[in-house]
Write a structure and sequence with these properties.
Elements (H helix, E strand, L loop, with lengths): L8 E2 L1 H4 L13 E2 L2 H17 L4 E2 H8 L3 H13 L3 E7 L7 E6 L5 E7 L3 E7 L5 E8 L6 H22 L3 E8 L2 E3 L4 E5 L4 E4 L1 H9 L3 E5 H12 L8 E6 L3 E7 L2 E3 L30 H4 L1 H13 L6 H8 L5 H9 L3 H25 L3 E5 L6 H15 L2 H4 L3 E4 L6 H16 L9
Parallel strand pairs: 6-9, 9-13, 14-17, 17-18
Antiparallel strand pairs: 1-2, 3-5, 4-5, 6-7, 7-8, 10-11, 11-12, 14-15, 15-16
Helix pairs in contact: 2-4, 3-4, 7-15, 9-12, 11-12, 12-13
The structure holds zinc ion.
Zinc ion binds next to loops.
Length: 434
């Protein structure tokens, strides 16, 4: 683990957490006492974030800090209400040691996922347990003002629910479907919403007075998986968000990789299809034209058009619904062959892109989430088969494809993680309890 107490210069790798406006612009900073203490506080929190309760002695072993320092840091984190003492560890056989753990009631967080045709809102506690949630469907054709007002109304509802609990609100995290300037809090461009240069952080802060953080959706979801999900122990993984588009959050060497211009991860627009189907980005043959939710629906439609026997028509009539992912999921569950065939073909198309990612990045894990996560159980087998066919065998053995444990809520959990990670990085931003 990190032994940072002794160094006077803090390497960049320790500082490159999602900064969200926190000043960490320099490659290297001199480690004055306050900064060193803050980093050590952060290190203790991160150890506890891995999930298990730990004694002060165990924390000293993990961090390389001495026991007196760990005790002083623990006292400060207890004073700020971020951790608490819980039970005794008598596993060593000696005098039982008091265990420390994150305090779920250290504070609450509002997470907002602005999707292309919905807004998802949750109120969660400090360890990511959901207290309240609501989903608002939106029409992408609605004006920007209308859609932002929906989001502000949901934030107001979440705030009201938080106030009922009397627990402090730590912040609001917002994920956006497009390119985001996280430092300035601006949505630079969303191809699917056709929004340009929207100062969302400022708009939300002006409305609420609550610290607000914004991030690209796939990046946020990757942070969510690392903070609360299947990738908590992983330093090299890729979160793949598959829905209307395909995007990825690259978590490499223990941190988010953003690229030179902050827009790394637009994997959906790599060329992968000889049929050269037109893509929404204006180019042709992009991966997402064969692996997104629309391509699945098209495949199912094509099978319906040639008169394949299926329960889909019956399900759509009974539920008075168009062909949706939910209807396809129900049909697949009932063993509908047409649906399963379309899912297998879509899984193969997705697997091809994943094989490329594995060959390039050699990740420990590819985590799949987004709207298509709903169908993950049916997609995983064809994905895995295609991955096995197209990756180098040595790399393949080191990588596994898994489903996000949060399914379609992976991104909104990422919104919550934005705030939690800001607190974890700078625990001093949280006030001491009275
Ligand atoms: Zn494209």
């Amino acid at each position: 683990m990190l032994n940072i107490q002794k160094s006077t210069t803090i390497p960049n790798s320790l500082l490159h957490q999602p900064t969200n406006g926190i000043d960490m612009k320099h490659e290297y900073r001199t480690g004055d006492q306050t900064l060193v203490r803050e980093i050590n506080l952060s290190t203790i929190l991160r150890c506890l974030q891995a999930g298990t309760a730990l004694s002060r002695a165990k924390l000293a072993t993990l961090t390389g800090l001495n026991k007196t320092t760990v005790s002083s840091l623990a006292d400060e984190l207890i004073g700020r209400g971020l951790i608490y003492e819980t039970g005794l560890d008598d596993s060593s056989g000696g005098r039982p040691a008091t265990l420390l753990t994150l305090n779920p009631n250290a504070g609450q967080v509002i997470g907002i996922e602005l999707g292309v045709d919905f807004i998802s809102a949750i109120l969660a506690d400090f360890i990511g347990q959901i207290i309240w949630r609501e989903l608002q469907e939106i029409d992408p054709a609605d004006s920007q003002e209308t859609i932002i007002n929906y989001a502000l109304t949901l934030i107001d509802k979440a705030t009201a629910n938080s106030q009922l609990t009397n627990i402090r609100l730590l912040g609001i995290g917002v994920t956006l479907p497009g390119m985001v300037d996280t430092e300035k809090g601006i949505l630079l461009f969303s191809p699917n919403l056709q929004w340009h240069n929207v100062k969302l952080q400022q708009i939300i802060y002006n409305h609420t007075g609550i610290p607000t953080f914004v991030e690209n959706d796939a990046n946020a979801a990757a942070l969510g998986e690392h903070t609360f999900g299947v990738a908590r122990q992983s330093r090299n993984f890729i979160f793949l968000s598959i829905g209307v588009g395909i995007g990825c959050g690259l978590f490499l060497n223990g941190d988010l990789y953003r690229g030179a211009g902050n827009i790394a991860g637009e994997i959906g627009h790599t060329h992968m299809d000889d049929s050269n189907r037109p893509c929404r980005c204006g180019k042709r043959g992009c991966w997402e034209t064969t692996g997104n939710q629309y391509s699945l629906i098209e495949r199912v439609r094509a099978l319906l058009d040639i008169g394949r026997a299926t329960v889909l028509n019956q399900l759509m009539t009974e539920q008075n619904s168009p062909l949706t992912l939910a209807i396809i999921a129900q049909a697949a569950e009932a063993g509908d062959e047409a649906s399963l065939e379309a899912l297998a073909d879509t899984g193969s198309a997705i697997g091809l892109g994943i094989a490329n990612l594995i060959n390039i990045f050699n990740p420990e894990m590819i985590v799949i989430g987004g709207a298509m996560g709903l169908l993950g159980d049916y997609l995983l087998a064809p994905i895995t088969q295609t991955v096995q066919k197209h990756t180098l065998s040595q790399i393949q053995q080191q990588s596994q494809v898994v489903l996000s444990q949060f399914g379609p809520t992976a991104t909104v959990m990422g919104a919550v993680a934005l705030v939690i990670r800001a607190v974890m990085t700078q625990p001093n931003r949280v006030e001491r309890m009275a």
